[in-house]
Amino acid sequence: MSSIAINNPSAIHHDDHGHAHHHETFLTKYVFSQDHKMIAKQFLITGIIMGVIAMLLSVLFRIQLAYPDHSFPLLEVLLGRFAPEGRLDPNFYLSLVTIHGTIMVFFVLTAGLSGTFSNLLIPLQLGARDMASPFMNMLSYWLFLVACVLILSTFFIESGPAGGGWTVYPPLSAIPKAMPGSGLGMTIWLIAMILFVASSLMGGINYVSTILNMRTKGMDLWKMPLTIWAFLLTAVTGILSFPVLVAGVVLLIFDRSFGTSFYLSDIVIGGQALAHEGGSPILWQHLFWFLGHPEVYIVIMPAMGIISEVMAVNSRKPIFGYHAMVYSLIAITVLSFIVWGHHMFVTGMNPFLGGVFMITTLIIAVPSAVKTFNWLATLWRGNIRFTPAMLFSIGMVSFFISGGLTGIWLGNASLDINLHDTYFVVAHFHLVMGSAAIFGMLAGIYHWFPKMFGRVMNPRLGYLHFWLTFVAAYFVFFPMHFMGLDGVPRRYYAFTEFEFMEKWMSVNVFVTWSAILGAVAQIAFLINFFGSIFFGKKSTENPWEANTLEWTTPVERLHGNWPGEIPTVYRWAYDYSKPGHPTDFIMQTVPHSETMSSNLPHDFDGNEVAEKIQEEWNLAHNASKNPEQVK
Amino acid sequence: MKHKFLNLKNLLALGTVYALSFTQVMAQEAAKAAEETAKHEGLGKTVSYYVLLLLLACIFVGIVGKIISVYDLTRKIQGNRRGIKWDKINGILFGITLIVGLYGVYWSYTVQGSQILPAAGSAHGAKIDSMFDVTLILTTIVLVLTHIALFSFAFFYNASKKRKAYYYPHNNTLEKYWTIIPAVVLTILVLMGFFTWRSIFNVPEDERRNAIQVDVTAHQFAWDVRYAGKDNVNGRKNYKLIGSLNGLNSLGLDLSDKANYDDLRVNEIVLPVNKSVRFTLSSQDVIHSFYMPHFRVQMNCVPGMATYFQFTPTKTTQEMRQDTDDPKFDYVLLCAKICGGSHYNMKFNVRVVSNREYQEWLKEQKPIVTDDMKKEYQLAMEEQGTASNTQIALNN
């Protein structure tokens, strides 16, 4: 690992010039930056803006669901022909649902989450000057931004944004005549998605190569914090699954624009038979979900990594079962590639496959359960500091449990027959990957804000933000389970056409107002976030008394991260409240020779010389190594 | 704090101005634009009223926040070194969340839980329901226990300077237990699910043939249903024939197949109780989903590919009305796969009746191949004979 400086040209640059001023212009510093911290901030702020937009879209369609018979003149002013007479057009409703899902899944929880924290933390926590390829990193952001702009631009075209649901199943998405949302809006959606995947791949390749090649001295894989493990496995998952989506998207573009028949066959629309023959709509579903299911783990694994770190720091305890946490992440990564068929139990796929996918799907619940129990054990007998980041981490665990348990229902093919495409599914994934991942992201923002902006966010606004959002999320999603169990399908524009749905109208009103409460609560976050960038309390170097390397960098955030030599790592990241040590944390940069009073036999990994030295020291100091007494 | 609110207000105002100018650009005539403005007169007032209300709420929260921080500071000045104990407060809030949350779950289960689907009206549905019960009980136990642990740890172990956390990095025995126990429980669930699944979809050949054959064609945004008639075989159809025979052939029936002639067109699905029925599903345009929640039946209708669902209804509509105590109860068929603008409105009536009523109903149904269609077909065949143009039947 001593070859880092040679591997990294920018490192040499820094060693040459020390930490003197760079000749940076506004453009190179803030816009076309190649510094991983600035790129992380670019991803974060773009992600927050996209998240706010997607949230506002959801409020719009929630209003439609709560008040299907009311007219809101404001909507007509804002949306024009998409809301004639102040009521959402049914096709535009589907576009809103589609774009809400697309933005949230891809642009906020994939790019906004991985893009921000992988970029920020990989070099900082591993002891690298920057990412392996800073230029590619910059390109990754810019492709992402172009994709964001493209997807939003579809609100300004005649036929409106894509409307076939975020899974864009053909033939609906392939035939412009099937719905307005399958016209130009869908073309742009597909192009945006290709750019997005290119961005993700560039990011992912960068993350993997940085993690594998550029760790500082002493940072072997088993000393990496769980955040880094999570980012590594997320990136691997993305690299292996995203190209399959591109393949699927390219074939869909061919079907739409060049008359091929990959997904289309035997179709009559508007009284006219189409020329397509021999394709299968099921093929798209296989290709889409081959990405789509790993995608939900791409979304949740970084959140898992973040909250593992935040919970250890704020419980002042080592993460329980570090090795089990890593192995369960690896298991999730591997299994995530062989479960995609559980999205297709009732799509006409051969029922035999349904049985197979049910088995693999329920197996993946085991590593998830292990992670949950380990988080609970981490909290047990801790000394918990409720920073906003810690609150969001606990909230994340709660959502992950509530949402994960319903996964056991949906993964069961027989139960899925009646739950498929109902509100039960909506409730399930909004809790387990929506709310849980966004809470992981928020935990990360509150926790590493000092590393991004040199200031801390206001904790009291953070508490307010957490409690309102936490309650609102449960109010919104918990009742949806019961709607699903009553057989109410998702993506319904109104509940007015079926008598049995009428009893859910009052629930819809409640859910909508809870969603509005949740949206309003984000004002507390936005004020806190953007206000603290400029006016927040100045941070110290290690405000949370954490062990990891990023807290050894100066508050000023240099390009190149450390002013002098990169620190060496001697121990794992989780020596919190170690018996025998005067403070309740020992940073990774502290050698065992300086902590003779707290060293434990397993700290030496079987190094006999070190063990002997420790034994001699113990004898000399007559100190018992019984942790109970030390405490 | 305050000038940030002002910023927010400016932003909102700016946004509204942009939105307004956008609509005006879209309006093609100036007169129309004026009309638009007139139509939305007073809207500005309403909107600014709500914006003001929101701002007031924000300012109120801001003031409360300031008061709290002033209180906090004075406490610190007065020698109460630690100020407000936020860790303690948050811990207590988690304790309250646990109790209120558990009650909330109980309330949801009893009140909203009583509004969910009634017991299944089909043979396989009963199996699904029993598995539903087992899964519900297991997951609820885990939900409650893990949340008790999560929130009570948060309640009991909030930060104290006097205490040091317990250094407890791992315990292999414990970890083995909580890997193996979930694995065993899940294996049981998998096996139950697997065998139920196979019993639903692996139907023996003779049972398939003996079932009542119903053919369903979905299209935007309706269902076409036909019964197989006396021979219990639905005749062939071909999408290229849709609209042929002068537009009479809306399903694309292939009239050279004699099995078509006794097929029946129906306006509602009527099924005899305790008789197996086999649905053959297809779509003319996009994917739809054939969803009858009361029978626990769902299968997608895919263009270019037939899909099947076979099941046995076990309760007549009358019996369901008695069981659910709802005189207006009806079985429904709805679409569960997003299929376009009127996806939410693809209702089709379903009734389950006694065998005798079913036979009577069946007698009243008209053949799907009408006399007009037969005439058109004859004509087309004759033309084809004279002009020997093989394409006519298809293109017509």
From TrEMBL, chain B:
GO molecular function terms attached to this record: copper ion binding; cytochrome-c oxidase activity
EC id: 7.1.1.9
Membrane topology: Multi-pass membrane protein
Catalyzed reactions per annotation: 4 Fe(II)-[cytochrome c] + O2 + 8 H(+)(in) = 4 Fe(III)-[cytochrome c] + 2 H2O + 4 H(+)(out)
Free-text remark on how the cofactor is bound: Binds a copper A center.
Family per similarity comment: Belongs to the cytochrome c oxidase subunit 2 family.
Described function: Subunits I and II form the functional core of the enzyme complex. Electrons originating in cytochrome c are transferred via heme a and Cu(A) to the binuclear center formed by heme a3 and Cu(B).
Protein name: Cytochrome c oxidase subunit 2
Species, as recorded: Pelobium manganitolerans
